[in-house]
Write a sequence for this structure.
């Protein structure tokens, strides 16, 4: 996927330069726009790769410390984690995070609990908080959200 994005960005940049070399002002405007779009694409790509690298580093650190939760939740025949078991574990992880919200390790484990329960959006948000806290920044979330499936309209 990254390779396809890089190829697309390269072709877009090439077309933008060609458009900027023409005489018409409309073509030049399109050329400028085509320079902006690859810049946004590069920014998004770099941001996602850095997020992945940082979460991998945190996971490795937590593994070395022995702080990763065991992967022992029951699974369905299709390989998915049983929702009730994930929700049960979520409660314990949430309590740990509420007890010490300034520790990135708790937010990392909370992210894994959200992911196990199928809530990818909150899992990513909690992981962003783990990364921020590990880098000495404030977390966006003050406290963990409701368990997956609760508190939604």
């Amino acid at each position: 996927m990254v390779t396809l994005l890089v190829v697309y960005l390269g072709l877009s940049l090439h077309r933008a330069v060609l458009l900027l070399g023409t005489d018409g002002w409309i073509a030049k405007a399109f050329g400028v726009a085509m320079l902006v779009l690859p810049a946004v694409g590069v920014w998004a790509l770099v941001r996602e790769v850095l997020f992945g690298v940082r979460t991998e580093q945190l996971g490795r650190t937590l593994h070395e410390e022995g702080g990763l939760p065991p992967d022992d939740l029951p699974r369905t025949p299709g390989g998915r984690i049983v929702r009730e078991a994930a929700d049960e574990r979520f409660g314990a992880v949430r309590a740990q995070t509420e007890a010490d919200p300034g520790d990135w390790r708790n937010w990392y484990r909370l992210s894994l609990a959200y992911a196990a329960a199928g809530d990818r959006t909150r899992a990513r948000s909690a992981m962003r908080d783990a990364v921020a806290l590990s880098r000495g920044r404030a977390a966006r979330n003050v406290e963990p959200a409701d368990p997956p499936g609760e508190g939604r309209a």
